[in-house]
Amino acid sequence: MSTQTEPRVADSDEVDVDAVVVGAGFGGLRLVHELRQLGLSFRVFEAGTDVGGTWYWNRYPGARTDSESWVYCYSFDRELMQEWDWPERFPRQDHVLEYLRHVADRFDMRKHIQFQTRVTSAVYDETANTWTVGTDHGQTVTCRYFITAAGILSVAYQPPFKGLDSFAGKWYQTSSWPKEPVDFTGKRVAVVGTGATAVQVIPVVAQTAAHLTVFQRTPNYVMPGRNHPLDDPQRTAIKRDYDAIWEQAHKQVFAFPMDPANRTIADVTPEQLHQVLEAGWEAGGFRYIFETFDDLLIDQRCNDAAAEFVRNKIRAIVKDPVTAELLCPKTHPVGGKRPPLGHFYYETFNRSNVSLVDVRNNPIEEITPAGIRTGTDEYEFDVIIFAVGFDAVTGPLTNVDIRGAHGRTIKDDWATGPKTHLGIAANGFPNMFMILGPQGPFANLPPIIEKQVEFVGRTISRARADGCDRIETTAEAASAWADNCDFLLNATLLTQGTTDHAWFLGANIPGKKPSTLFYFGGAGGYFAELDKETDAEFPGFVMTATPQPQPQA
Ligand code: NAP
Q: Which of 73, 181, 471, 497 could be 332's S-S partner, Cβ–Cβ 3.0 to 4.6 Å?
């Protein structure tokens, strides 16, 4: 258990607290630990009534992680790692939430968090070198460091359909699901969307609904999760091997504890190709992508083979050939949209109470009092579930009125796409740090969060040690990083998904300019970049001391 002293006042009289943190999810809680280590005073604002972030809001039926539990957690405290028992390979939302609650209680973090409070603005004052943070309660708090940990998928894309208010039944958005259970028994239910969220919802709702109709615009490559409970010997082995597991995860492209396949498509015969893909498919989760062929996301022939393999699995699982063919993705490569993990997803379409409606060329025109109307048909429902996605990555920042040293908003600065240094800092926004800001790695997020938080801690420590209180990334560093992100993305096959509304390119929100929202150089490469920046004494940042006001003569 930590025993650090808890400073109550800010270092300087000019601010209320040294740091304000936005969000009490994985990132915000990890920041509490770090800021305490630094001896800074801080306050965390959280919109929910409890900690958890993503895992607080997304409590829809079927919600669970797509990362294996033993690396979907913190590694900063060995005792925490040893005492926590994960029940399953891919834990349910309530288990992840329970874990984060445990962390908050165990490390006595709640006293720093003001719940049910949304940060609405943050304005930098160049003369005073302070941020003034405003909330939806009309509060203002001044601070030196403004640190966002608002998640990448926390601003929902609102259902874009006219007539929604007229619907006589009930409708829900997966990203703000009610706390009390929703009963679908005997109900005619619609699910709109077939992304990672809908893929989790559909098999669960199908079990109780009278009839479930799935509205699909773009089919996905859904990998089988192959989830299973963890027994005591498995948990003991994980805890014994934690050091090796995390070391492996810190090197792997997606921050998973997996070794490279050490194999490309050029190394295998057609027979071996099939065997390798079959083994990856059966291993479950993202092992199909990362443990089969190292060139799967960069070589067209390899990706084509992996895509056709999935299509043939769909055709083998789904009995109705018309439905099977509709479920087959054909317009983007594997990875061109973030592949969902399914738990009996394709099998669900063999149920007699489940049907699929293709709305790619026959879009949803409107929501009517009775249900959903496409260009050609009208369907009647008691319940509609919208799983239509998020204004991802930039949305959680551009939806807050954040104004930098030049007086411009971050929304204006990023109108044609974000530019950040390391996904953590933006030029023109001194002393603002972003956990999971744009152009960070596309990867399993808890390890990324931990490394980014440690980097922010190191940066602030270094500035303070030098007597500096203003830290700003340079325009050159941010441009170079953004160019690097463009270059790395273009070296993959992933941009082929742009036309298919991939959220990780910002292409799913009408009017949002598609841009490079992630660093595709791999988690291991990213961690090396963070270390390089630290070892080279932060060349991408300018650290200065604010001139003290001179006493009047
Ligand atoms: P998403 O991947 O953006 O999927 C949104 C779905 O809504 C898509 O199928 C989309 O179709 C559909 N849609 C949007 N507008 C539509 C319209 N006007 N008409 C018909 N369909 C429409 O969002 P998501 O499923 O919430 O997932 C987002 C991300 O959250 C995932 O990729 C993943 O990274 C994360 N997530 C993680 C987990 C986990 O780790 N356990 C679980 C769930 C989600 P198009 O494809 O044609 O745009």
A: 497
Kindly state the tokens that stand for 276: 């390798």
Nearest protein CA to atom 26 of ligand 1, as residue: 389
- The answer to whether residues 386 and 172 touch, using CB atoms and an 8 Å cutoff, is yes
What's the distance, Cα to Cα, between the start and end of the chain in Å? Answer: 52
Stretch (H or E) spanning 365 = strand 364-367
Question: So where are the chain's domains?
Answer: 17-155+392-544, 164-386
What is the number of the ligand 1 atom nearest to the C-alpha of 65? 41
Q: Quick one: which of 243, 218, 469 has its CA closest to 332?
A: 218
pLDDT > 70 fraction of the chain, expressed in percent and rounded? 97
| 20, 147 Cβ separation under 8 angstroms | yes
200-247 pLDDT, tens digit per residue, is 999 999 999 999 999 999 999 999 999 999 999 999 999 999 999 999
Return d(Cα 173, Cα 502) in angstroms, integer. 19
DSSP 423-482: TTB-TT-TTEEETT-TTEESS-HHHHHHHHHHHHHHHHHHHHHTT--EEEE-HHHHHHHH
Strands 119-125 and 17-22: what pairing?
Answer: unpaired
Q: How far is CA 35 from the centre of its chain?
A: 23
Helices (runs of H) and strands (runs of E) counted in the chain: 17, 22
Task: Give residue 551's pLDDT.
Answer: 63
Question: For residues 175 and 172, what is the distance between their CA atoms, to the nearest angstrom?
Answer: 9
Distance 92 CA to ligand 1 centre (A): 19
| Mean pLDDT value across residues 140-156 | 98
DSSP string, 396-423: HHHTSEEE-TTS-BHHHHTTT----BTT
Answer yes or no: is pLDDT of 1 > 50.
no
Beta strand 383-386 pairing with 188-192? parallel
Cα 349 to averaged position of ligand 1 atoms, centre (Å): 19
| 3-class secondary-structure state, position 201 | helix
Question: Closest residue (by CA) to atom 31 of ligand 1?
Answer: 196
Q: What are phi and psi of 524, to 5 degrees?
A: -60, -45
Dihedral (CA of 344, 347, 348, 351) sign: negative
Name the residue at shortest CA distance from atom 14 of ligand 1: 388
pTM beyond cutoff 0.85: yes
Strands 119-125 and 401-403 turn out to be parallel
Token output for 393: 């990555």
Distance CA 7, CA 41 (A): 6
